[in-house]
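PT: before anyone asks, these are the final sequences, not the draft ones from last week. 366 residues across everything. Please model them as a single complex and drop the result in this thread when it's through.
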Amino acid sequence: MIEWNAATIKDFQHTLLDWYDQEGRDLPWRHDHEPYHVWVSEIMLQQTQVQTVIPYYERFMDWFPTVADLANAPEARLLKAWEGLGYYSRVRNMQRCAQQLLADYDGQWPQTAAGLEALVGIGPYTAGAIASIAFNQPVPAVDGNAYRVFSRLLKIDDDIAKPQTRQVFEQAITRIMPHDRPGDFNQAIMDLGSSYMTARQPDTAHSPVKRFNQAYLDGQELAYPVKTKKPRPKPVAYVAVLAQMGDQWLMVQRPSTGMLGNLWTVPLIKVDELDLEEDASTADLLAAVTAYFKREYRLILTAKMLKLRPVTHTFTHQKWTIQLIGGQVQPADLAYFAGKGVLLAELDQLPMPKVQEKIFNRANVH
DNA sequence: GAGCCGTGGGG
DNA sequence: TCCCCAAGGCT
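LR: through. Structure below.
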């Protein structure tokens, strides 16, 4: 068994940081330690891979170079910058945080993890990352990489799906991390976790820290980390109504709470909410959709079933199957309609989720 | 504490 | 097709 005494810890720190100095990745947000840059990158990287984030980060810095630019941006522009990244509340919380910084903090970032965690959208991981990288505070940044790396090194078998496990890792990492280069240490762990110490196919034989990896030395690497699995996505049936009013498409904005908050789609109706009988026919479905339009929007819809394969889209815990309906509405007063008519050429100005892109593609709307 | 909240990639 | 994973936070 590896004994993590003071000498081992020093050895590990130097081995890891020497490797990081040689092999650490050159990423756009590592060009300086500006808290704004660190913050934006960390929020984007939540549950999202580096290669996905890079182009989004570059464009975001182009559009919103400072905290003030972000605080004052129109929300549609903000969501457009985030379109396709997912977890859209992240960017709305970022704007709230930016406004909070300007209003209540005189534009000055708190420099401690506890102070940062008080801000909207910044949890324990992101607070640790910003505090260590931007402000040189010796605090851990416990993300999926840190869980994986240290569970293997130290053979910690607490379930990382449980919130209470975080403190076990925070204590262990706090004891091991150096006080002179905490930000580099935390980032080195992330680079390690995404290269040699991946979840599925680790290459520990070539890892710079393999001699510190107790799970590897015991041939039990793939048993770590211990994590209970999540339930499968629940199937949900929808109809999407591709309705034209003259040369405009009817688009609705989703509510600010819940899935895909404030993004735009064609009217999406949960089939459950149409109160259909079990043996309902296609005609029954179309009649129910027409009634829905009249009731909810005060619009007269002429609907027809589109002979297209349903669109399927899987979210973290819902799997949508979406039957497509085409139709036209009579030119009308849209006062009761929770959306607007949009010309085809203007559609790309609305922030839309991926599922909407799939719907338009299936219906050949371009 | 458990459920909610997106998307892309790999096996 | 399905499952799991990827720099989590909020309620």
